[in-house]
Structures
1.
Amino acid sequence: MRGFRNLAASALAPRNLFLLALVGVSVYVGIGGLLPTGPRVTEAVEARPVAELTGPSANDRNVTKIVSSLMRREHLSKHALDDEISRRGLDLFLKSLDSMKLYFYQSDIDEFVQKRDQLDDMINAGDVSFAYTIFNRLLKRVDERVALVDELLKQDFDFSSDEILVTDPDKLTYAKTPEESRERWARRLKYDLLVLKAESSAAKKEGAEPAVQDDPKDRLRRRYESFAKRMHQTDSNELLEMFLSAVTNGFDPHSTYMAPASKENFDIVMGLQLEGIGAQLKLTDGHTVIDKLIQGGAADKQGELKVGDRVVSVGQGDEGAMVDVGEMKLNDVVKLIRGRAGSTVKLGVIGAAGGDVKIVKIVRAKIELKDSEARGEIIEEGTKSDGTAFKIGVIDLPSFYMDMSRARDGSENFKSCSRDVRRILDDFNAKGVDAVVLDLRRNGGGSLTEAIHLTGFFIEDGPVLQVKDPDGRVQQYDDTDRGIAWKGPLVVLTSKFSASASEILAGAIQDYKRGLVIGDSATHGKGTVQTMVDLGSQMFRISNPPELGSLKLTIQQFYRPSGDSTQQRGVLADVTLPSLTDHMDVAEGDLDYPVAFDKVPAAPFRSYDTVSGDIVGTLKNLAGQRVEQSAEFKKLSRDIERYLEQKVKKEVPLNEEKFFARRAELDAESEEEKTFEQQANGSGDKQVFKRNYYNNEVLNITLDYLRLLGKDKVARN
């Protein structure tokens, strides 16, 4: 089918972490379950006038009909676009808009659900006007809630009472009256103020407190007003993306509609390069703030822009007028800053400590997203029989990236993770590395082609995976490049965030008994393959079709050479190490409407002799003894116990003394937010493999593995 491109797309869309824009790198805004993520409100408070979206755009009808047709004909499940999908879609759309049930009233929901069995008929006809009805009601409720927030923040709060804030959406109901909504928002604001106080205390301890301090109530007022402004700036493309994706997510969690802007950002993430200044932006209490500078990027080389600077205006060229961006949504600010390499952009910025606006002039350049590409490091550890140290080569691979656009155009030098990893392995071979550790802990997937190529570096030949299409046909994908780039001992490091293409590689390595899998008890469990369908090409059979966005469509399920699917089960670790992520609800099975696990017959392949049951048993025993004696792992064990206790309760005390006591032990919501942020943006460490107690144990297991293998360290089958 024209416009289709196969890929094992990234599996993870962490809760409360939304990819908003890119300015030389991903721009993420971390929005916790207790921060303004979606809509909330009260009619007892006078609300400002609402500027409504006027209705579907000219292209919405055609895009909707194409998406409807493709989902019905091509989706893996062969599920009809029927009343069941209709109900799922409405539930998911409402959840995406108001996840904590703070904005809509129960009466709003009662009105909406009267049409819950009609969405399929509407979408088949190309009619998305109901999405506008819901979203415009949301805007009305948001404005009411912002007015309520302004009123409540004028009052004093009692932090000595034993109130709680429920953090589990499933335990919450929509408010039935303005009074009920008012009481819930009072608790929410108390929580917000306690969090700001905790953050301020932590900043003081670290010596990172800015010279200028805003009043916490002013910060909250500005935060919610900014949220309302951003919601009112939602355009028809963004609303169409939210609504259609809610419906396609009713088929499975990974089928989504991408509007043109989102598709552009997706291509940047996959290709790891763009043209811009090389700065990562975020929204903080209504301000656009520099969150990170890309090493070697245009802004980094220019030297004037600093992390923490607030961007207040943007101008084009040497003489272009400065445009105030204080009221703009982040996507629009990004569009102004991003531009053709060699052109000039001017930023009006205010430093983190306040002061006057300074104009920073930067010449845009091609930016390579180095933080997201494969990196290698050789670590000397332990002692061999001859007295020299073992050399452990570590490869950090954040994704299976590939510049799909340049690859399609026939370019010989397109960006590719397999090419980068091959260069690293060649260097390891030249320097006499004893073992390789491939770190996939934050790798959420990427290109299926790249996963096959990279797996082939560690096996001579044979099947890497099998795929089954909607008609039940099973196809085998083999390593076609004979030869092994790395013949020595191999360790694959995984976590619950290792997904999709990561699981293809880890599963094949485990099936072939080619290497050891260490990490969380299981990987994410995404065993489906997506393709990108360009909707403009589907509608217009011309050389340069209009940009209508793309449909990321689940078309296949993949299976290991052994025949087992990784879907919902993941790849089980040979040696499990304790971690907090192992207990987070971030796996495929925790998502809405995942595809079911199943099996296909095993493909014929020859296994290697580098992993055996006896070796794995011994490694588990040795690692278990060290973990049992480790003070750091003991502390982690206590943290895990507290996390699980808080996770079950799903509530936060609003008594100040109890709130800070809980936070001093461990704050479940804070830990989850921090983990999601690290998955999205990386740890920020320049080190490939940071030396901490967890990674030290990985090295210990690797050394044990080397010793158990003895002299027979070369893969043979």
2.
Amino acid sequence: MSAEQQKKPFALKGLGVSPGIVIGKVYLFDPLDSQISFYKLKKPSSISAEIQRFKDALKESEKQLLQIQENLKEASIKEPLYIIDVHILILKDKKFINRTIKYIRRLGINAEWAVRLTLDHYKEIFEGVDDAYIRDRISDVQYIAQRILRNLAGEKRQVVLEIGGEVIVIAHDLSPADTAQMKMDKVIGFATDTGGRTSHTAIVSRAMELPAVAGLGNITQLVKTGDEIIVDGISGMVIVNPYPDMIKRYEEKRIHYCAIDEEYLQYANLPAVTRDNYHVKIGSNIEFVEEIPSAIAHGAEHIGLYRTEFIYINRHDLPSEDDHVDNYLQVVKARGLNWSTIRTFDLGGDKITPDEKHVKELNPQMGLRAIRFCLKETELFKTQLRAIWRVSAAGNVKILFPMISGVEEIREAKKMMEEARRELLEQDVEIASRMEIGVMIEVPAAVEIADKLAREVDFFSIGTNDLTQYALAIDRANERLSYLYEPLHPAILRLIKRVTDAAHEANIPVAMCGEMAGDPLCAMVLLGLELDELSMNHLAIPRIKRIIRESTLEESKLVLKKVLKFNTSREVRNYVQNYMMERFPEEFQNEEDQLIIYNNKKIPPEEIFR
């Protein structure tokens, strides 16, 4: 790319993982890969010394991570310390160590080369995994490999010491250990090649409330330190080398966002009650206990969905019952929450537990996962059920079973739940007298038998992410099919209506915990469907509350009645967009704001994407 070409603006579309807009200079994070030398050992007698050099680098890496962890604790940094524990476990992993030593011994190569070969081996394994969450975990191994390589090279410098002013860090991905060594007071945003909402960069960005975009593919190959860049963590847009009028437009957008963000927070602690007195309970979806304080500050009245898979995935051994209890107690005992809904683990398919002998499935999303996996691996399931019962004595807990497709499954799950309860009572363990039981409605079959499922449980929770995927036969991770993934599809709206009708007919509440629940554009449609509870990313709560408080149930029913008459997704979305922009002009930006000025012409961003 020539200097002339580099001056031209271009845009990349990724995933906004931490909201906000920032304009500044690029700092391209260098993992030092280019400075590593690879060579053959000249003498066989050098092998023992090279193996020892590798082991010394392992010890030094562990020492550094422990020091970073201690520094984070002393500074009360909210970054998840347990991720560094995971990195330390990788350093001690016998398979990782033995494979590297084998390369040194058999190939007669230096330790740096051997570490790189070991990393390549793990990359090949992870790239064959279909599940994006598991695939992203190769970054943990990469972080450790890079740290070992630095120590083998005698690299002692701190990362990003040469930052001279405020910068936006561009990287392939970042670990908490990387960011802990940066001068974070100089960092104003992030953009990365890889990652998603559960990546380390996303977690750190949200914790520090810095705008961030992940999943950009190859931004590290397209920018250099010092480039001007705009990062829009709301839309997932990144604009490199913007024209002055582009900067002006985004400055205005940033000022607008900051102003409305402050304004929205005024609604955080207000109830979501419509003008005609219809009350919607508002909860937050969480994966990490560290998210709870921010969830409460943004107006979460309860935890509507606590995903528990992370307890299993990021460790090298199976969590004990006490591990579960310790984790859940931090959620249940949090002040300011009316209740916490704990979803049993959605493992299986490609989300395998430690020690599991995994059989690769052709379609893991429709394979042995969630409740199906639980009912096969009964000891794992029983451990979690006992732990949930134990914490029920400490606060108001509800339990939620995922991916239920038939009455048999929920009855079997309830049977195991009762067995766990009796075991604990026989051991004189204090537990709640009863616990509310719910099912995730995310499989079309569950919609068809919603009336029958309603007789078995205390509440429904609609998972629109998977329900949309399964109902429309779309892999939502497939970029080529993303244009078909539409929660406002007439079929999806009808499915949701059938579920709410069945629930209310049985006098049980119905919640929604999918991404649709936190989409302001869908707020009035969901009101019209008369959902009792919406649970979402906590950053979306104030805005949703504001829209609900300025709406009426009667008006929302009329909107729903209108959209249910349309035949296509495009008709529904166009009507809803126009209605909401007219109804809430200050909430929804004009359609022109979706355009970027390029050479004095207004064109959609996707036309200048690379």
3.
Amino acid sequence: MIWLVMITATVTGAVGMVDLARDGEWAQIFEVAEVRSHQLPLRPDEAMMAAVAARKLGHDKAAERYLELAIDNEGVGDVARVELGRLRVKTDAERAAATVIPLLKRSPTREIRLAAIEVVVEAIDRGLEDSALREIEAASRRYRRSQKRPLEYALATQDETAGRRRKVKLLESSRQDEVSLRAARDLLAEDNLSLREKWLAARTLYQHALYAEAEPLLDELASTPTGSGFSTWEVALTRGRCAFRAGRWLEAAAWYQKAIEKCTRRDNRASLHVHHSRALELEGNLENAIEEARQAVIVRTTDERRLFLARLRLKADQIDLAAQGISAMRSRSFRVRGEMVRAVYELSQGNPEAAHRRLTAIRRDPWRGPAAVLAAEVSAGQEDWKRALDTLERASRALDGFWAAHAQRILREVPEPIIDEWRQHNSKQLASGSERNRRDALITSAVLEPQSERLDAVRSQVLELRPFHNGEGEPEFRAGIAGRLWSSGLEELAQRWHPSGFPSGQPGEILWTAGRFEATGQVWRTVRLADHAWRVAGSDLPVRVYPKELVLRLFPLPSPEAVRRAANDASIPWSLLAGVVREESRWDPEAFSRVGARGLAQLMPATSAEVARRLGDSEPTPGDLFKPEVSLRLGAAEIGRLLDRFGGFQAPAIAAYNAGEAQAQLWLDACGSDCTETRYAATISFDATRRYTVDVLWAASMYEQQYGAGIASAEIESPQDVRVPAPANARSRH
């Protein structure tokens, strides 16, 4: 038998090993490598294949031996070095550090650089000689501070003389990552903290939403004199923000008033007046909220503050004063936003024609598309179908995602003779119009065509103009680590250590690359690449007229059964949960925000603990939130609570998931008694929350379109009381 294996190994060269690697035949690769390595030295790429095979089979000593053979190779040596460091660090910290320190000086990819830092940090924690620590510190000086913060913290923990000072420096540079939270907790465990150290620790706790822990420190600091390395007005502001985030509006307002009294800079005082105004508005004291907003404009006038004041005045029906404030804005874009605010107010007051006149006058992005949809809804309500169709057609270039979907919904109600006439006109333009007219007609049809079965003809024309696929087979890799590893059959290593080295020129190449990452579970990269492919192909045309492969990779569903089960337990639409997860984390289970939100649903530890208590579950650790099933279950439960809070109306529930339910309720009140999903979206005054809300709702509709039938036929039964979204208006909510 041995002689047969030797003959096979002699015949099986690198090409044969590549084929075996692509097929996942790791046991055979290892057997071949073991025999061949006794005959001739393995080439670096062969040694890497053998090392991967050894690791997969649990032969760590053999893997270490093979990695050492590849470590000095220019092409794959850095990958071998970082893999070797990761292999050694748990058993020999000194050797592991010595292995990866050269990578701190010259890392060819971001992934290798960050992995080298991780190895070094673990090695430091396990204990290194002073000479190694000095070498690490010298090598790391070329890195950006954001990348080397974990390394700086690890070095600080080993520095008996200056460690405390170094942790303070870490907090001074940033308070929005996990390193800062660990440094703050370390400081709080020390004796004789200075006021400056207490302030930095308190600010860090606040940034990580640990308000109950921050408040006692801030109360102590608020009573200290000035000149202690921080401003007392900042302490009062932060203390007020803690109360605000906890929903204690009067307490927040009182702290904001203290901050105003202590602050001398005009810009800061104006911002404090806005904070004070928001707290008073949420408390229901609209009169004083308006006065605080007016003071903000007086202290330092900006268009944003004028707009904030105008919103409050409209809420108090001070229409003329609001109009004066909007007309006084210097920026045209802010004046357009003001006109949109006035139009939504007119709708909430039951004045559709006045709102329509204002909406059709809005021609500036990003409000042109939303204004057209709201105007078309007014026309559709009056059964003026031609006016509705004309409004949407003129704005078709400005309609994307959520707004385009609602435009299509309106057109589904248009009588057949009118919609057929519109289709015939577009067909003529596509057949015989000028080049510009043909392009405009194609965009209009692609954006507005309400019948999915009629899109096939449009899709064919689009793909003739913008082909997605570039021939058969794999696209070529450019020179680099990814190409070397891929050609060796080490696809997993290529993706891990050099993802940016994959083909990304033409849309077809990008989509091919997206498919490779999706196959290995790196769905967040798939979404990013699919979005890139769409923009390279031309995002002036909607996703739905491009190949279905693109749509499915823009809206992946990597764990349909887990999503359905979590949604089923919470009695919410599975597509809404999928939309939230896509927007929050792009399906990255390891997602970690700057303020400590974790996992697929991006839950904060404090929020997750509260949700778990409500469900009767044990309190999850911060690490538990990176487990997909935990994040999905808790995220779905929180969405379910918010849906209950808003009577099943999805738009404010999703806005509340992002900006808090009190603020979402204010927008709902401003939207009026006949609020619709589109009107609510236009009412949201925070740009980030508005984008978040419409993106989640659009994603939910896309998930339903692409996967609805498959999910519905799954073995998991549909709950009888699931909150199926009804037409979104106030009457249906009650």
4.
Amino acid sequence: MIALYLLTLGGAGALTGAYARRLLAVAGFVPNFEAGLLVAGAIAAAFIAAQLAYTGALRLIIPSRSPAYYLFEALANGGALALAAPLAGISLVDAGGARLAALVIGDVDRAARLLEKIEPILFLAAFAGAFLVFKLLALYATVRSRPAGRLAGAVWIGLAAAPACGALIALFAWRLELIEAQRAAPGEVGAYRVGDTFAPARRLREGAHLTFDVTGRRGQNVTLRWAALADEAKPPDRIHVAYQFDDASADLDVRELPLRTNQWNEWRLPAASIPENASTCTVLWTSERTSAWVLRSGLRPSGGEGKTMLLSGPYFHESRAATTDPNLVVLFVEGLGAEHVSGMGYARDTTPSLQRMAADGTAFSHAFSPAPETLAAAMTLITGVNPLLHGYLGAARGPLPETVRTLTELLHENRYATAAFTEGDGPDERDLVHGSGIERGFELFDAYYPVSIVWRRSTQGGANPVAPAGSNITLEKAARWIETHSDEKFFVLVRLRELRRPQWLRSRYGDGFVTSPAAPRPLDVYDTALASVDKQIGAFYDRLRLAPGLENTCFVVASPHGFDFSASWNAPPKRDLTEPCLRTPFIMALPRRPQNLAATQSALTTFEDMAATLAALARVRFPHLVSGANLLAEQPQRDPVSLSGVPLALSIRTNQWRFTWQSGLEPFTWNRLSQPEPTALVNIEWYLQRWKQAEHLRRQPTLIEHLTRRLESYVNENAAARETETRRHTTP
């Protein structure tokens, strides 16, 4: 009987250890195979040691020689067979338990969900019930048996010492594995795409701890963004995020976070929840909610079943209640030429919404793009330096010199939440995309370009089934993001691409300014599309300008280029170094317009000025030299210079003239490709009056020589500055 007892005791210990390992694995306390073996062995040894010690103590208190005791003890150990069913994969739900429970609950699905939750308890209850019944019978058999000596009790207690020591050693080793897993460094930060949106993120295994500094973060929200890996077969529909401040022995607070697929899911700690004297915060996630007894135990889950999530952050954003810095929303509208803006002298009423925005702030009617290229102009807008310095022009894609920082990076460091919606991933050209350099400093970067299929003939001839699906799609995404972050300061860049290739989408735009539907003029098509885009911008602006929490928001409209329709009435528009292409509007709708600021300003303005103005509004400073002026406090002093092409052509705009010069140089290599020569000299007054341009190149030799020297100096100075930066970063 003793042999049977010992045999069943070993089996019961093994089953108990295996089942405990399974429960702890689900709770996240088995980070790897070795930890699983250790915890199973520890529980098994502890169970065996407890039973041997119980037998020894009973033999010391009630000396007995009855074999019936060992028989009933063996039967009690046999109750552990109830745990073999779940270990073998047998489920009460699959075995028909849900249908039986439905007889009481009345709903099979609800019964199945309930049974699935309490199933572990039911198996443990079956084991405990059988175990206790036979334990009582064994105790009864001991009391009713013949007395014996107490030496056997001491022997049983001595036998219990070995498994007890083994259990302690295994538990200690398991605890070390758990701590090691908790301290396992999260993955390196890299760029991850989830759905349409990139974010800098790291892989974080379930239960692994991320600890970060929160010293001096009073008045700042903490934001973490979570997403399932793209290769996850069955991504979870929710996770439980636990966090604690400073003391590792304190209870974790746990919040449930529902997960939307193919999206970054935001989890935020409001500024008010951060203790004033806290220095660190530790965050972890689990698939299942961590039980209260686990939290009170001081143990922390450290991963289960190898699950991993993407974690972007932590980001610290200043709450709106703690700052007076304005939010910044920049709408970068490609193809928006100032000559077609109704508030800037155009006869047609194409842009009433932009006119309303200007009335809430100011409009600079003579802003000039540094290049009729979206990426080159955008990089100047966010760095404050011209294309020859930042390195983006034509096919050249930088990189930015290390000393040049973007406005987005500065705002992010100044605790702004940052996001970009650029429509850069277009069917004709990929420009403002992740990896181009424009993404620097953005927490979220969405380059998705919505298109629709429209089977009709294009105005330029040929089948053209692809058309922009509408700026409202991108504006809607941006508006939702802004409304979510209305309680903290933010910077959002929205690029709209609908005017890049003006198309007459009659089903969307109506007739508009088109008077000859059979042969619409490109100019009429453009104005019709522009009126539609203006209407969509107006709806976006009206939705957000008076929304709760967004009162202190500055809305900015700028454009990288317009179009030149001067070739002929039926020719497609040009994009070149001409006045209508380079003159673009710069409109600022301010939360509070200074009293001395005119609603419209006609001073010649550059994108460098725009960058300096936005930086001044947000109270940040570029670490590198920015030649632009803060337009809200001073007058710009520089004549705008614009660049294009290979060989490099330059155009300078003064109050009276626009002069264009072909340098004959290849940008950035400065190889000579052709001879330099002036190519155009336009009298601005004559141009505005639509007078026929005289041959100024022949009549103004002194002026041409002067302007040529200025452009040569411009190229030489910027080429030397770029070369200095390049040499500095390549020299060991």
